[in-house]
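Researcher: We plan to redesign the surface later, but first we want a full-length starting point. C-alpha cells attached.
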C-alpha cells in the first residue's frame, strides 16, 4: 500500500460516524460530515443593529459531497440557509466555511 492510499483510508476514518463525523443535512441530502463553530470567532460577529453573523466550518469527504462548491453560493445546513465564504480542498476533505445571520 502506498502512502497516498494510507492517507486516503485515514481520511475516510477521520470523517466516519465511528470517529468524528455526524450525519447532517446539507443541500437537502443527509451527509456524513464534521461541523464546527468557527474557532477564530467564538461569538457572533457584529453585523447590523439586531442582526449578527455567525460562521460554521464543515469538513466533508470529497466523494461524500460529490462536487466542489464555490464561494458565494448559498447552502442549506440542517435547515438553515448559509452563504459559502471559503472552500478548500485538503487532499480528500473539503473544508467549507459558511456564514449565516441570526436576529
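Model: Full-length starting sequence:
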Amino acid at each position: 500500500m502506498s502512502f497516498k492510499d494510507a492517507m486516503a483510508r485515514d481520511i475516510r476514518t477521520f470523517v466516519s460516524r465511528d470517529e468524528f463525523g455526524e450525519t447532517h443535512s446539507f443541500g437537502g441530502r443527509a451527509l456524513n460530515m464534521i461541523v464546527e463553530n468557527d474557532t477564530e470567532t467564538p461569538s457572533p460577529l457584529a453585523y447590523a443593529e439586531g442582526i449578527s453573523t455567525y460562521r460554521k466550518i464543515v469538513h466533508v469527504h470529497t466523494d461524500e459531497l460529490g462536487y466542489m462548491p464555490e464561494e458565494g453560493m448559498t447552502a442549506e445546513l440542517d435547515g438553515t440557509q448559509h452563504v459559502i465564504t471559503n472552500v478548500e480542498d485538503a487532499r480528500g476533505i473539503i473544508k467549507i466555511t459558511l456564514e449565516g445571520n441570526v436576529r
